[in-house]
Design brief:
- The complex is a heterotrimer.
- Chain A is mostly helical.
- In chain A, 62% of the residues lie in helices and 1% in strands.
- Chain A has 2 domains: 176 residues, Tetratricopeptide repeat domain (Serine Threonine Protein Phosphatase 5, Tetratricopeptide repeat); 72 residues.
- In chain A, strand 1 and strand 2 form a beta hairpin.
- Chain B has 2 domains: 225 residues, P-loop containing nucleotide triphosphate hydrolases (Rossmann fold, 3-Layer(aba) Sandwich), CATH 3.40.50; 63 residues, Alpha-Beta Plaits, CATH 3.30.70.
- Chain B is 33% helix and 32% strand.
- In chain B, the strands form 3 sheets. Chain B has a 6-stranded mixed beta sheet, with helices on both faces. In chain B, strands 2-1-4-5 form a 4-stranded antiparallel beta sheet, with helices on one face. In chain B, strands 12-13-11-14 form a 4-stranded antiparallel beta sheet.
- Chain B is globular, with a radius of gyration of 24 Å.
- Chain B starts with a strand and ends with a helix.
- Chain C is mostly helical.
- In chain C, 79% of the residues lie in helices and 0% in strands.
- The chains are: A mainly alpha, B alpha/beta, C mainly alpha.
- At the A-C interface, helix 1 and helix 4 of A face helix 9 and helix 13 of C.
Chain lengths: 308, 317, 258
């Protein structure tokens, strides 16, 4: 025979379980239909100084919170193939004003503030400004010089400045040895594939944030592919000079050039050869950032990040 | 029907920092209280009286055992409409007036609206709280709070009333009034169960008592039985400062206090003693059969460890 | 439904009022009037924004403080003062007591909010000199604030049912702060790995999501709100409140009142 107390306990326990489940489900649903104006809400106060004052001294925590929001913001927009990242610069500026020593923020800025949309915000000047701010506040950190030089190299193509920055950075105690190497490379062989590969490999190795690493991998793949296509097209030219015509197929070219087999791209798909002698990649959409091997009139779609 | 049947209620608390040490507040208790009687629950402080009451009220959950109140399971919420409870040194919502408090309690006890007002006035008069309209309880003296407490306990005309130390904090006049009230309740056919450590009150009021000490029941029985006459002795008191030879001859034990003498003599010498005094022209003040006081019984029960037989029966032998 | 819950709620309301809680409205009125007058003398464009933001934030914060201050003592004070004994010796079920206390406190806050709303609209009228249609969104924001109060009350009651007033205040206030940053907690969880991720995600969903219920700036910027969203938030608040109250009932039912 159940006492009143037992009955109440059962009902209360059931009620607890049901309401808990319902709350969680409703919350997930609400998140989906909430206006994405949430970040704009957050940045209603756009001035880093005001936010610093409003933090009541809990700067470090607020910096962490803003850093989280920055990553989420970028991730969401990237996922949605956005073309503008207007809030990225303010978010990074707020984060670094609250905590000038939050190093991952600077690296994030270098990777994603400078490049053109949809890969980034397309604001290299602000990225440079951010890096200089970081260097001023963290003079013993060689990585910030790296990030700055990176921006000069990749987006502004200002190789002289990049070399200067890498040189400055190499003088910081405990700087990674490749800083000196990169400085030298910049000066001599700025436009080479090898330099670019070195730069992106360095980024991949020193970064811990997954978006940045992904980005570096895609660039490395693009470099590989560009290199391949350049090499293959040189072979086609050679073939043409020797035989007076374009090769009939990739197989013929491969045989003539003594290649070990049909050349394949980093995904394992064979490169295609057009009758005019152009080398094309099988799935250009899988390779954001490539500049070669693209069919004529190809419009680069939104970049897809693969999981490697 | 018994008003209260306690069937093996027991309570063990876990104490200590890790709550591992068991502390027995109440050994399994077996007790019955009949309808219409005034029952005293006696014991020194910390004996387990309040624990028992709280278990009956459902404020504390027993480790084992059950109880029946007015024939119903003690956890049945509906039975509470028929009982009243006055806790020890009660404290009420001090921001309310006595009228508001009783109105609130009346609502909770299910007294219908139209009756409530009338009942409140009746009960306040009965406990002697007059001229307190609009006065918040935080301004009440201890005695007034106790009266308010009694008022809330009887407001809804319960069949069974529980009082925990009802006399505490009252002056002699107040105690007298409470005693009278309890007598009246009995005359109205109600059952009164009250706990106290003041034996004279119990002796005066109760039909039956139970004595509890260190969580154990030490004795139960009718007051009259427990304080039965000892071996037919009488106490005789006369005016004077000396003990006449005739009295000494009767084998009296005498005490002289001021200008009176008290002597204890065997019952069968009663008449001889009266004659002796008359012959000596000594003024007789009193002649009373000697009874054990409840106090003596109480002290004895507290000191003597219980036998196994008494423990199982839960009664005194 | 037993009327006892209503009686307990009414008495809880009466206690709050006699405890002079409604005097907070004076402080609120002073604050808002001061702000309205001050703001009226600076820029023309943002006075509406300031009055609405400040007003609604004050309604929210004042209310949360009251909810916590009163809520934490709802049960523990009755146990400490032993006023509970005479209540529970009557045909009152323990769960009725909890639910009644909840409605009493929630009722106090609704009444308080009502008066504050009048104040906000009054200040708005003063600086803007007229009402415009989108100002109705302020009512939505106020409604959401009331939903927030329901959640806070139920949490304060939950903690009061087993914890001392001081600890209850700490817990309730912490949950309020964490709940206001619930979105960020979700972000943290998203960046974590392994078991931390599971724990953080669980916490992020169980903490009351006050950021979803905070539409103050949206109201200030006159951004409309879909009725779907209003409905879902209402349901969320109700279920969350039910969850906290169920917890309170479960705990209180088993408590030995020494």
């Amino acid at each position: 025979m159940k006492t009143a107390r037992q009955r109440t306990t059962i009902i209360a326990a059931a009620s607890l379980a049901i309401s808990m489940a319902a709350s969680v489900l409703l919350l997930r649903h609400i998140d989906r239909i909430r206006p994405q104006a949430s970040i704009e809400d957050v940045l209603y106060v756009n001035s880093p100084r005001m936010i610093k004052r409003a933090s009541l001294g809990f700067d470090g925590l607020m910096a962490c919170i803003y850093w989280t929001r920055t990553v989420q913001y970028f991730g969401h927009r990237h996922f949605d193939y956005a073309h503008t990242y207007n809030e990225l610069a303010p978010l990074l500026e707020i984060t670094t004003t609250l905590d000038p020593h939050l190093l991952p923020a600077y690296q994030f800025g270098a990777s994603f503030l400078a490049p053109r949309p949809p890969g980034g915000a397309g604001q290299p000047e602000r990225a440079i400004h951010l890096m200089e701010y970081g260097i001023a506040n963290n003079p013993d950190n060689w990585q910030l010089y790296y990030n700055l030089g990176f921006v000069y190299y990749t987006e502004l193509k200002d190789y002289r400045k990049a070399a200067e920055v890498f040189e400055r950075g190499s003088k910081v105690p405990n700087a990674h040895p490749f800083m000196k190497i990169l400085a030298a490379q910049m000066a001599m062989h700025a436009g080479d594939f090898a330099t670019a590969r070195m730069l992106w490999s360095a980024t991949y190795e020193t970064a811990r944030e997954s978006n940045i690493r992904q980005n570096a991998i895609e660039h490395l793949r693009a470099i590989q592919l560009d290199e391949d296509v350049t090499h293959l097209e040189a072979l086609v030219t050679e073939f043409g000079q020797r035989n007076g015509r374009a090769p009939a197929s990739m197989a013929e070219l491969a045989a003539a050039a003594h290649l070990s087999g049909i050349p394949v791209d980093p995904d394992g798909d064979a490169y295609k050869l057009t009758p005019e002698g152009r080398v094309l990649v099988e799935n250009p959409d899988d390779f954001p950032f490539i500049t070669k091997g693209l069919p004529p009139g190809y419009k680069q779609g939104p970049p897809k990040f693969h999981n490697h | 029907m018994a008003a209260i049947e306690i069937l093996g209620l027991e309570k063990t608390y876990m104490v200590g920092f890790w709550r591992k040490r068991p502390k027995r507040a109440l050994q399994p208790l077996h007790l019955t209280v009949e309808e219409g009687e005034i029952f005293g629950f006696l014991g020194p402080n910390g004996a387990g009286k309040t624990t028992t009451l709280k278990m009956l009220m459902g404020l504390v959950f027993p480790t084992a055992g059950t109880a029946r109140i007015l024939g119903h399971d003690w956890t049945d919420p509906e039975v509470k409409a028929q009982i009243g409870f006055l806790p020890e040194q009660p404290y009420f919502y001090d921001y309310l007036t006595a009228h508001e408090l009783l109105d609130y309690y009346g609502q909770l006890s299910g007294v219908p609206g139209k009756d409530r007002k009338r009942r409140i006035e009746e009960v306040l008069e009965r406990v002697g709280l007059t001229d307190i309209k609009g006065v918040q309880l935080r301004k009440f003296s201890k005695g007034m709070l106790q009266r308010a407490g009694i008022a809330q306990a009887i407001l809804h005309n319960p069949k069974l009333v529980f009082f925990d130390e009802p006399m505490s904090g009252l002056d002699p006049l107040g105690r007298r009034e409470v005693r009278d009230l309890m007598e009246q309740l009995k005359q109205e056919g109600k059952t009164v169960f009250f706990s106290t450590h003041i034996l004279s009150d119990a002796e005066a009021l109760c039909d039956r008592v139970a004595i509890i000490h260190q969580g154990e029941l030490r004795g139960v029985g009718a007051v009259a039985d427990l304080t039965a006459t000892i071996q037919g002795k009488v106490e005789i008191v006369w005016q004077g400062t000396e003990v006449p030879a005739s009295m000494k001859a009767l084998g009296a034990e005498c005490h002289i206090t001021g200008d009176t003498v008290r002597a204890v003599i065997p019952e069968n010498q009663q008449d001889a003693a009266i004659d002796a005094l008359r012959r000596e022209r000594i003024r007789l003040i009193a002649l009373t059969p000697l009874r054990t006081s409840l106090e003596a019984y109480f002290v004895e029960k507290l000191q003597r460890p219980q036998t196994a037989a008494e423990k199982t029966l839960g009664t005194a032998v | 439904m037993s009327p006892r819950i209503v009686y307990i709620a009414a008495n809880t309301f009466r206690e709050a009022v006699r405890d002079r809680v409604l005097y907070n409205l004076i402080a609120f009125a002073l604050l808002l009037s001061g702000a309205a007058i001050f703001v009226g003398q600076i820029s023309i464009d943002i006075e509406r924004l300031v009055v609405i933001n400040l007003g609604l934030t004050a309604v929210s914060l004042f209310g949360v403080v009251i909810a916590i201050f009163i809520g934490i003592g709802l049960v523990s004070k009755e146990i400490e003062k032993r006023t509970l004994y005479t209540v529970l010796s009557r045909p009152v079920r323990r769960w009725e007591f909890i639910v009644g206390k909840f409605f009493g406190l929630a009722g106090t806050l609704v009444v308080n909010t009502f008066f504050m709303a009048i104040g906000v609209f009054g200040a708005l009228l003063y600086v803007a000199h007229k009402f415009s249609k989108p100002d109705a969104l302020i009512l939505v924001a106020l409604y959401f604030i009331v939903l927030e109060f329901l959640i806070i009350c139920s949490l304060a009651l939950l903690f009061s049912s087993f914890s001392s007033p001081l600890l209850s205040a700490v817990f309730a206030f912490s949950l309020f702060v964490i709940g206001s940053f619930a979105d960020d907690l979700r972000g943290f969880a998203g960046m974590a790995h392994g078991i931390t991720r599971w724990v953080a995600t669980g916490a992020a969903y169980l903490v009351p999501n006050f950021s979803a219920l905070n539409v103050i700036s949206a109201a200030a910027h006159q951004q409309p709100m879909s009725s779907q969203l209003i409905l879902q938030n209402t349901l969320y608040a109700l279920f969350y409140t039910a969850m906290a109250l169920s917890g309170a009932v479960l705990i209180f039912e088993r408590r030995n009142l020494k």
